[in-house]
Amino acid sequence: MARGKFITCLSIGVLLVFSVALLVFAADPPEKITLKPALWPTPTKTPVEFTHKKHSEEYKVACDQCHHVYQDGKNTWKQGDAVKKCEECHTEATIQGEKKLPPDQQKLNLKLAFHNDCQGCHQKLKKENAESKAPVICAGCHPGAKTE
User: Fold this and answer.
1) Domain-located, residue 147
2) What span, in angstroms and rounded, lies between the C-alpha atoms of 139 and 6?
3) Are 22 and 37 members of one domain?
4) Model pTM?
5) 10 with 50, same domain?
6) CATH for 124
7) Total domain count, the chain
8) How does DSSP assign the chain, residue by residue?
9) Which domain range does residue 66 map to?
10) Pair (23, 53) in one structural domain
11) Could you tell me which of 20, 47, 121, 136 has the fewest CB atoms within 10 Å of its CB?
12) 24: left (phi > 0), else alpha (psi -120 to 50), else beta?
């Protein structure tokens, strides 16, 4: 009798684990994300409309190219891990003169994190293919911004 209850409980436990895993992996990424961090109550540029679905599906950008958790210098984030807002870890809020910060603060700077990831990827694409439409100037991502 006890063996039957054990097998039933084990089966239910396994079913629950697989159900949760299926929900995590089946979740569709949002179509668009507006990058307007609360860290900047008065930003110097307009918010960025990031086309998450287009980047992941059409452009085939791997999730771990943007999502990350660094341990011992390696990105240990995996598909299905929790996704945090960038400003949860990148808490340094300087938006002017951020490149003059000490290196440890630069790693935590939100503006540099966005620009290093986004601009870095876009510049790499332009280098590989001059016809790429990946924006590399401010107005390409920030509507209405000056083309500095």
Assistant:
1) no
2) 62
3) no
4) 0.73
5) no
6) 3.90.10.10
7) 2
8) -HHHHHHHHHHHHHHHHHHHHHHHHHPPPPS-EEE--TT-SS-SSPPEEE-HHIIIIIS---GGGT---EETTEE---TTS----GGGT--B---SSGGGS-HHHHHHBHHHHHHHHHHHHHHHHHHH-TT-----SHHHHSTT----
9) 31-141
10) no
11) 20
12) alpha
Residue for token digits 């949760």?
20
The single residue listed with the structure tokens 């008065």 is 42
pLDDT in tens, 41-51: 888 889 999 99
- Tell me the percentage of the chain whose pLDDT exceeds 70: 78
* Residue written as token pair 């961090």: 37
Q: Which two tokens stand for residue 40?
A: 């900047």
Tokens 């000056």 locate to 146
The residue type found at 135 is: P
Is 77 in the same domain as 60? yes
What are the tens digits of pLDDT across the range 51-87? 999 999 999 999 999 999 999 999 999 988 999 999 9
Amino acid at 41: P
d(CA 49, CA 142): 8
